[in-house]
# Entry
Amino acid sequence: MQLNTLSEALFTELADLYDAEQQLIEKLPTLSQSIFTPSFRMAIENHLDETRDHVSRLEKVFTLLGRKPERDVCESMRGLLQEIDEIIAAPGEAPVKDAVLIGALQRIEHYEIAGYGTARAFAEQLDLDDVADLLQESLDEEAFTDRKLTQLAEGGLFSGGVNIEASQAGQPRS
# Structure
């Protein structure tokens, strides 16, 4: 890794994001099968398609920059996904595990939001408007996913959320 220019820093961010998204694509199918709440499971299955779009978009970015797509192992994503594995393997009530998984997934979304925001800012500074626009698309989708996860956890006007179900887990039924 060389960080002597902002262009090099941009490529480092892109390679990190590219690997992070690839790792997520590998994990989401297993995660989906471990989820108890149907609306949460469907959201994760939809996010898998979106994540594939992020990878395609990053590949376009690399092409626009005249580079082959590169993966720099994203240790942060590796650690975040290891937490997901630990939650899945932990004994416990399914609604509670879903609530904890939502929190873990939001940490992943926040990581991706920071990465895409940084890469977009670098691209803007380098007057790479086409690159910045593509990165902004992924940034917007990651922020939307974060909001959707919050809604799944907290519920909405017409339905209860995963956190409500989790708060009732283990309670005697009357």
User: Anything to note?
Assistant: Helices lie at 6-34, 38-64, 75-89, 94-125, 129-154, 162-168. The two ends are 61 Å apart (CA to CA).
